[in-house]
Amino acid sequence: MLLRIDHVGIACHNLEEKIEFYETTFGLTVVSREVNEEQGVREAMLHVADAPSGASYVQLLEPLHPDTAVGKFLAKRGEGVHHIGYGVADVTQALQDIAAKGIKLIDERPRHGSMGASIAFLHPKDVGGVLTELVETARH
Amino acid sequence: MLLRIDHVGIACHNLEEKIEFYETTFGLTVVSREVNEEQGVREAMLHVADAPSGASYVQLLEPLHPDTAVGKFLAKRGEGVHHIGYGVADVTQALQDIAAKGIKLIDERPRHGSMGASIAFLHPKDVGGVLTELVETARH
């Protein structure tokens, strides 16, 4: 079901500072910047690698307001890994298959993610404390 | 410098339960089990994908004792993402380059990691709260 580790989602206080850090320390390159009002984040995708099933990224997330999921995460735990995104071929089918196994979903239906992807989150309570995202890359 | 997301390291209380969960929920397959006394963990590598630069994995980590790094992590934060491992071509060179940028290292020299890899950890304080591992895959 999982095609690749699509991205590591990292919560930070200052997006521009953290982008510069990942660029200068690790040589990564920003390939996309977006504001996602629905998720309450300003974000950047930094390209790590390409693979047959799709690329992989470090995703840096800065909350738009303290009263957002990422804002609350920062207040509670500080900066760090917020979630893991795995690539899937068909996110709707994957959600159905996972729900059928009794795993609690955050998103019953896919929603809009980074770079036009269809994404959905699974509840961390049922995935060993890991906020887990499924990512179906946009077709070009 | 970073060739791929090599693995996501996930801390758990019960390795066998969590292996079964990742196998049945996501269809991953265990390719290696090890006990690493130095790091105080019992672990399993579950294969996610292959790519030109190397494979990627979910690494499940159960502490051997409460008084280990992963044991303390579990006591403080509960189950969840413990660290992120990135593939590099030459871990010794990467450590030198990163140290030269003023990033604090946990490991000044590489040590033994999963499946014969040479690995080193960077200090999360200097990497935005992310415990970051560099992985040079064993040559076969």
Automatic annotation (TrEMBL), chains A, B:
Keywords from the UniProt entry: Isomerase, Metal-binding
Primary enzyme class: isomerase
Per the record's keyword annotation, is Isomerase included, yes or no?
yes
SUPFAM superfamilies attached here? Glyoxalase/Bleomycin resistance protein/Dihydroxybiphenyl dioxygenase
Q: Where is the signal peptide?
A: none
EC number(s) of the enzyme? 5.1.99.1
MF-aspect GO terms:
methylmalonyl-CoA epimerase activity
Instruction: State whether keyword Manganese applies.
Output: no
- The VOC domain covers 4-137
- Hey, which family's this protein in? Belongs to the methylmalonyl-CoA epimerase family.
- Name this polypeptide is given: Methylmalonyl-CoA epimerase
Source organism per entry reads Microtetraspora fusca
